[in-house]
Amino acid sequence: MKKWLKILLWVLAALVVIVLVLLSYLPTFLEDYIQENDLELIGREVEIENIDINYFTGKVSIENFKMYEEDASTVFTSFFHLKFDLEIGHLFSNGIYIQDFVIDGFFARVEQNEASFNFDDLMDSEETVSESEEEESEPMHFTLANFKMNGASLEYSSEIHPEAVFDSLNVELPLFSDTVSVFDVMTSLHVGSGGHLSTTNRIDLENSFYDVLLEMEDLDISLIRPYFDPYMELNSLNGLFNSDLRIHGSWEDSDVLDLGGTFEINEFEMTDSRDKRVLALTSMEIGVDTVQMKDAVYTIDHIKLDGFYGLYEMYDESDNWSNMLVASADTTVVDSVGMAEAEVEIDYSNPFQLLGIYMKDIARSYSESTYKVEEISMINSAFDFNDYIPSQPFRYSLTDLVLHADSLNSANEQLTFNAEATLNGTGRFEGYLRVFTDNLEDIDLHYDIRGTELSFFSPYTADYVDYPISEGDLLYTCDTKIRNGIIDSQNIIKFNQFNFGGKYDGEPFYNLPVKLAVSLLKDLDGNIEMDIPIQGDLKDPEYKLGKFIWNTVKNILLKAVTAPFRLLAGVFGMKAEDLEKINFGHLQMKLDKGNEKQLNDLYKVLKNKEDLNIEFKRITKKYEAIENYAMAEAKYRYLYDGDVPEIDEISDEVMEAVITFDVKDSLFMRFVDEQIMEQDRELPIQRKCMLLVGEERAEEKVDRVGFKRSSAISDYLILEKGLPEERIRFTALPEDSLITHRSNSVYNVGFWVVE
Predict the structure, then answer these.
(1) What integer pLDDT is reported at residue 333 of this predicted model?
(2) Whether the Cβ atoms of residue 243 and residue 260 lie closer than 8 Å to each other
C-alpha cells in the first residue's frame, strides 16, 4: 500500500507541476490568443505587451494595452497599466469579487457621426455574446470594489466639433455590485481648452434615477464654439463657465429633470466674422433654487448681470446680427407635436439643437408653469446702436444701463421690470415695463427721457427733411397701454431750444417746411411742446404703428405751417383773425388804428421769435380797384370845380367827403355826361367815370395806391417798431385769391425763415 501511495503522490505531484507549468504559460497563451483571434472575437485589432496573473493572490496585471479602430488605422483605446485583485474564494460561491481595480494612463478616442459612434460595432458584438451567455450560464453575482482610473484622457470629435481634448481624468467607484442598486461615482478632469470639471454622481439602478453634483471651474467657453458654427459665423467666442449644480433625473422618464445651484459666466465675449465685439458680459450669475421640469416649477433665487454689452448695427440690406446667421441647413427642427406627421432630421451631435427642441416644449407649456424669480438685475451695462443707412452714420449709446425686477411670480397678476440708462452721454432714461401674466401681450409701458441732446439725430433729419439739427434737447414722457392688441399711448414731448441748421440742398425723402414749422411751434421760451395720442389695433394688418406715428407728426408740422395763426394766438394771447390779414378800404393808403393794432401784434410775435420773418401777400381785384379810383377822381373833379387831383396827396377830410358822396347824385351824373361823348352816356356810371378819367391814368394811380399801402406797413414796422428791414417782404398774389366783400385790397400775412 505504501508503494501505491508513493506512486499516487508522485503522479499528483507531476500533475501539479504540469498544471503550474501550464498556468505559468497561460498569460502568454492569452496574449497570443487574443492578438491572433481579436478580429474574430471583437472585430478589432488588439495589442497587449504583457499579462501577469498571480494564482495564489488573485492579482492580475495587464500592461500597454491597445485596441485599434475598426479600420485599424488609429488607436481607439489604450492604457499603460491595468491591475486588480480577484478574490479567488468567491469563485467557489458562484460570485466574482474584484477589488483595487486600477487603470493608469487610459486613453479613448470617441468619434460621433450624427447619432452613431465609432464604438457601435463593439456594442453590437457584446450584445450577441451576452445573449448567448445568458442562455447557457447560471446567474453569477458580481462585485467591484475600489475602482480607480488615474490620469486618463479622452479625445472627442464630430462633424461639428473637430476635436475636444479632456485630460487628467480621474474616476473613482467605491463599490459596484449586482446586489446593490445604488452606487456612487466621482469624476474629475481637465479640459484641453481650459478649465476643470468634477462630478459626484449617485446612480439608482432600481428606480432609474441619477443625482449629479456638477462643479465647473473656469471652463473655457471656446469648447462649445463649434456648436454655434452651423448657425452663426463668429470669429471668437470666449469666456469662463463656473457652476455648482445639483441635478436629479431619470433615464427612463426624460421629463424628470430637477436642477438647483449656481451657474456663472465670467469675461464673456462674442465677436463677429470681422472680429468686432457684438456681445459681452463681465459676469452673469444665476442662482437656481429649484427647477422641476416635469411639474413645470421654476424657482430662481436671482439672475444677475454685470457689465453687459450689446451691439446692433443696421446696413442698407441687412444688419450685423442677420449677417452672422448661417443660411438654413438641411436639418429641420420642428415641434415635438408634429414629429409624427413630418420627417425630422435632428443633429444629435449638436446639444444646442436638442436643447432648442426641449426649450420649445417648455415655452409651449408656459401657461401651465409655476415660476418665481426673487430678483433680476443688470448693472454697469451698455448698448451701442449704429445705423449706416443714412448718408452720415447715426451712432447712439446707452451707458450706465440698469435693469431691475423684484419677485417675478406666476401667482401675481403682473410682472414689473424697471430700467434706467444714460443716453449718449447727455440725457437720462427711466421707465418700467409691466407685463400681465394671464396674457403676455397685455403690457403697460411708461418711461421718461430727460435732457438728451437732439443734434445726434442729424443724420436722420438731414436725409429725411434736408436739415441737420443744430441744437436742442428732448424731454419725453410716454404712457402706453396695450390690451388685446389695442394700443392706447399718450406721448408728451418737449423740445427745448430746438433749432435746425442750414439747408443741405439735397434730395430729402420728405419735402416739408420743417424749419418754419419749428419756429411757429415754439412757445415764448423757445420750446416746443407736443401732445401726441396714439390709438389703434395692432392686430389689424393694415395698421402700421410707425407709419401712424410719422403721419401724426407730419400733420402737426403741416398744420403749423398752413394754419399758424390759431397756434400763435394761443401762445401770445391774441385773436387769430387779427393776425391773418391786413384789410385796406377803398383808396385807403394810410394805416388806421385797427391796422396799427394788428401790426403791433405781429411785431410782438416777430420780436419773440427771432428766426421767424414776415411776408405780406397783396391781393387786389385790380379792375374793380381801377373802377373805384375812376369814380373817386370823377367825384373829386365835380366837388372841387374840375380840379384834377393827386389823390394820394389829398387830406383825409377831403378823401372822406369824396368816398361818402353818392355816385347816383343827378347833378354829378349830369357833370359826367357833359365830359364824355354823347353815344357813351347810356353806359353805367362806373364806365362813364372810367371814360372821364381814362383807364391808363386810373391804373397808374391804383398802382401808386398799392405802393403807398406797402410803404405804410413797412415804415410802421421798420421806423416805428425797429424791425430789421430784411425780415419783411412783400409779394403779390393773383386777384382771384381775394375772397372778401369788405375790401378790394388785402394783405394776407405769412411767415418764412432763412433756409
Answers:
(1) 43
(2) no
> d(Cα 677, Cα 655) in Å, to the nearest integer?
28
Residue 268 counted as domain residue: yes
Quick check: 346 pLDDT over 80? no
Closest CA to 587 of 523, 658, 528: 658
State the residue range of the domain holding 266: 181-412
pLDDT band at residue 9 using 50, 70 and 90 as cut-offs: low
Coil, strand or helix at 69: coil
User: 371-385, 477-491, 494-508, 545-559: which has the minimum mean pLDDT?
Assistant: 545-559
The per-residue pLDDT for range 243-255, each reduced to its tens digit, is: 999 999 998 887 8
Q: Which range, 86-90, 165-169, 722-726, is most confident?
A: 722-726
Both 261 and 306 in one domain: the answer is yes
Q: Where is pLDDT greater, at 289 or 255?
A: 289
Q: What percent of the chain has pLDDT over 70?
A: 84
Which domain-ending residue is among 109, 141, 176?
A: 176
- Average pLDDT score, the chain: 82
Same domain, 385 and 502: no
- Residues 225-236 have pLDDT tens digits of 887 888 889 999
What beta strand segments (E) does 221-348 contain? 234-250, 257-272, 277-292, 297-306, 309-314
Look at residue 193 and tell me if it is in a domain. yes
**Which stretch of DSSP H or E encloses residue 445?**
strand 439-453
pLDDT tens digit sequence for 495-513 = 999 888 888 877 888 888 8
Q: What's 598's domain CATH number? A: 3.30.1330.60
Cα–Cα dist 156/224, whole Å? 12
Instruction: Based on the fold, state whether residues 257 and 301 are members of the same structural domain.
Output: yes
- 432, 414 Cβ separation under 8 angstroms: no
Q: What is the largest CA-CA distance in the chain?
A: 194
CA atoms of 37 and 685, how far apart (whole Å): 139
What is residue 124's predicted lDDT score, i.e. its pLDDT? 62
Q: Are residues 556 and 678 in the same domain?
A: no
Distance of CA 233 to the CA centre of its chain: 19
Q: Are residues 199 and 273 in the same domain?
A: yes
- Is the model's pLDDT at 344 over the cut of 50? no
Say if CB 454 and CB 469 are below 8 A apart.
Answer: yes
- Determine the Cα–Cα distance for residues 609 and 603; give it in Å rounded to an integer: 10
CA-CA distance, 237 to 280, in Å (whole number)?
10
- Domain membership flag for residue 732: yes
Q: Quickly list H helices, 281-411.
A: 320-324, 351-364
Q: Total domain count for the chain?
A: 4
- Tell me the C-alpha distance between 587 and 660, whole Å: 12
Residue 20 burial (C-beta neighbours within 10 Å; 0-12, 13-18, 19+): exposed
Q: What is the pLDDT of residue 507?
A: 84
Residues 300 and 325 in one domain: yes
Query: Which of 535, 562, 589 is a domain's end point?
Result: 562
The H or E element that residue 146 is part of is: strand 141-158
Query: Do 212 and 63 share a domain, yes or no?
Result: no
Q: Is residue 567 included in any domain, yes or no?
A: no
13 confidence band (pLDDT: 50, 70, 90): low
Contact 452, 469 (CB under 8 A): no
Average pLDDT over residues 90-112: 82
- pTM for this predicted structure: 0.74
Adjacent-strand bridge partners of 624: none
What's the angle, vertex CA 377, arms to CA 375 and CA 383, rounded to 5? Answer: 155
Note whether 206 and 350 are same-domain residues.
yes
Which residue carries 496574449 as its cell? 31
The pLDDT confidence band at residue 331, using thresholds 50, 70 and 90, is very low
Count Cβ neighbours within 10 Å for each residue of 591-630 and write b for 16 or more, e otherwise: beeebeebbebbbebbebbebbbbebbbbbbbebbbbbbb
User: Closest Cα partner for 463 from 397, 373, 394, 530?
Assistant: 394
Closest CA to 331 of 341, 320, 317, 345: 345
Q: Compute the distance between CA of residue 333 and CA of residue 322 in angstroms, rounded to an integer.
A: 19
